[in-house]
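User: Hey, my collaborator sent me this sequence without any context and asked if I could get a structure. I don't really work with proteins. Can you help?
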Amino acid sequence: QEALLTWLVQHVTDEGWSRVRQEDSPPRIVEHPSDLIVSKGEPATLNCKAEGRPTPTVEWYKDGERVETDRDNPRSHRMLLPSGSLFFLRIVHGRRSKPDDGSYVCVARNYLGDAVSRNASLEVALLRDDFRQNPQNSVVAVGETATLECQPPRGHPEPTTFWRKDKARLDLKDDRITVRGGKLTISNTKKTDTGIYVCVAANMVGERESEKAQLSVFERPVFVQRPVNQVVLVDESLEFRCQVHGDPKPTLRWKKDDVDLSRSRYEIRYEKDDFVLRIKKASVSDQGTYVCLAENRVGKVEASAYLTIREAPQFVVRPRDQIVAQGRTATFPCETRGKPQPTVFWQREGSQKLLFPNQPTDEDGRVSVSVNGELTVASVQRADAGYYICQALTVAGSIMAKAQLEVADALKDRPPPIIRQGPSNQTQAVGGVALFRCQASGDPEPSVTWRKNGVSLLGKDPRFSLQEHGSLQIQNTRLSDVGLYTCVATSSSGQTSWSAYLDVRDSSDLIDFVSHNSTIIPGPPSKPEVTDVTKSSISLSWEQGPEVGSPVSAYVIEAFGQSVSNSWQTVADHVKTAEFTVKDLRPNTVYLFIIRAVNAQGLGDPSPMSEPVRTQDISPTAQGVDHRRVQKELGDVVVNMHNPVVISSTSVQVTWTVENPSQFIQGYRVLFRQTSGLPSPGPWQIQDLKVASERNITLSGLKKGIVYEIKVRPYFNEFQGADSESMTARTMEEAPGAPPQQVTVLTIGSQNSTSISVSWDPPPSDQQNGIIQEYKIWCLANETRFHVNKSVDATIRSVVVGGLQTGVQYRVEVAAGTSAGVGVKSKPQLITLGAELTDIITGSEGNNSISDVVKQPAFIAGLGGACWIVLMGFSAWLYWRRKKRKGLSNYVLHTGSLSSMRSQSSEMRLHLRWLKSTTKELYSAQMEIGSIDLVCT
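Assistant: No problem. I've predicted the 3D structure and written it out in structure-token form, which is a compact way to encode the shape of the chain:
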């Protein structure tokens, strides 16, 4: 039994196993797991399907370690599906729990063996929050390229980037916009590109937005109006204007010679859209280059203009009246200044001859003008007496000054003798010797006499003797010799005296006499020069003489006046400076002056005599007016004109002040002339102010926007004084009151051309109302989108206007503009491009249509035919008249019939003349067009 059981078990079991093995198969993976990238917390499945007999069991391994599933731990988030796939309820990825990411394989087993799948990676998707590089705010100018950099945050898989502008996804269809590697580039930027830009990074985890970046597209500053060069006179006001557009609004400032201008010296302000620099009173130092500088965040531009300052001529040294003896030389200085340097010339009153510096002298060579404007009259003759006028001229104005030359007799009006050194006070002891000096000079040689207490001295006492050079010596002095001793120098021209006191004491202890030493007294000062003259005063200046002895402490001035006295008079002493004004002189009197210096040793020798000078005349009574005095006094009146004040576009107020006024002045003559808008200055116009006490007048009825030169002149009846310095004023401008003239419109090129040429002449000069600054051209169509406008500088007289549309009718108008605005437009000229068109020309009245019609070929042909018919009819009529006259040849013609024939003959001549002129015009028109060969015989 036991053996049988063993055999059965053995045989049955072996037989059964043999049968199973023939039907079973080892495991085989038919579906391998694939790599997965899954977001954290999301479900995921790793597929794995195996076949085999018996059905294999499946296990999962991660990184070589067996994976725990819900079959091992019901709480596990990993489930082993019946198919063998591994299902994750949620992907775990973090520090607290074991992460699910790794390399997975599935293993299928049965008793026949096991099978291993391919490795499958499970990765957890990641997208961080922080961008590696955020875009930054950017500012660019219109037309520039804008770039916004962006590096997305780290993530897995690598995130893709795109851009949003103002919360909307940026359209990349625009060729100007490109995105490469997260960097956004916008070329040729426009104002519409301004906005808020955000860089967006995205992967399967989601999206991340960068920080916001502001892109600002601004406009560089662009000049709408540039400052223009200007030329003005000193003390005139002026303005520089500039206008600039830009975004953001540019900041503006003015510079001169690379230095910013301060508002304390200059007036700088905005006037609407203009940035204005105003100088109220221009000076020479204001000349230079002025720059308007505009700057904003994206650019800087500047425009410059040059200011030229003209300074009206002014006298530095005026010529003064002179009294010169015959045969002597007269010199009249005339020094001027101005900008540019004035041209100085002289003219003798009543003569048309002008004397210029370095000009060859006249025939006798006595009159000449030096380079610095000084007039010299050599070997003065009686005929040279009169008034001489110095005139200075520049583009900024002119001035003039008169000086009188009086010729004195060489033997007459000689000054009295001069005592160079006179006696000095002294004290002598009884029995001593006293010596009084007296050195006199003059022409003729003077004689010297002495007086004691006013009584002639010489010849009465042998102790008194006259020494060489006129000195008085007293020997053996006595107490009775005490007194005042006077030296008198006498000649035919007058006498001069000098006194000194002698004191005689009986004790030698009282002697207090210091002998006079002429070597230590001060030397003579220079010749005194006259610096100013009025009716009762003369101003003098001089220079100190050689320094001898002690320093000069004061000066003494002596004067000799014709018709005042026949001797020299001390008119001033204790004068501390080298200039002095001598007062209380007689009017209309000739004076001579000498100066002496004083020091501790005494009174020095006299200076050379001054030139004769005449004080001004007082106003004579109304009766018996001396015309010579009237002319002289009017010549001394100085009129100082103030800057004219412009009141309106047609009126200017003129004011002035007067130096050295005279009762002769009846009124003032205001002269003015136009200096702009004409090829050369216009004629002087005159407006008199007949009230001598008033100092202002308003000139009205002036032209608009015109520069006028103005000056003022005092007058008395037919006599006139010196003109004031000329000044200029420009009346206010207005827009031109008339359109441009001779407007011509021409087509250019072929019939399909889109350009025309427009030319014109300025408006009439009397209607320009100022300085033309620009011309505006309008090409207006029925629809505004076809309009074309253009502006050109005032120097341009023709322009090509392009960009017009063919087949569109345009109205072409032209207008001139001043600083006050644009004036009247010209009459519209109609033109259609693409049509057969010659040219359109308008005159000042715009009526040349007749000449246009006459030039048409059809009109010329028709008129030529009509002319031919008239000529044929006229020939037939002549033939008929001649035949009729033959029939009447045997009869005597009456006077009435003859007159009738003559009248008819005159009519025939008139018809022929009209035909001839018409034919000539037709031929001229035919030659211009070149389309008809018209021959009239």
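In plain terms: Helices lie at 2-23, 627-636, 849-854, 857-887, 895-929. You can pass these tokens on to your collaborator as they are.
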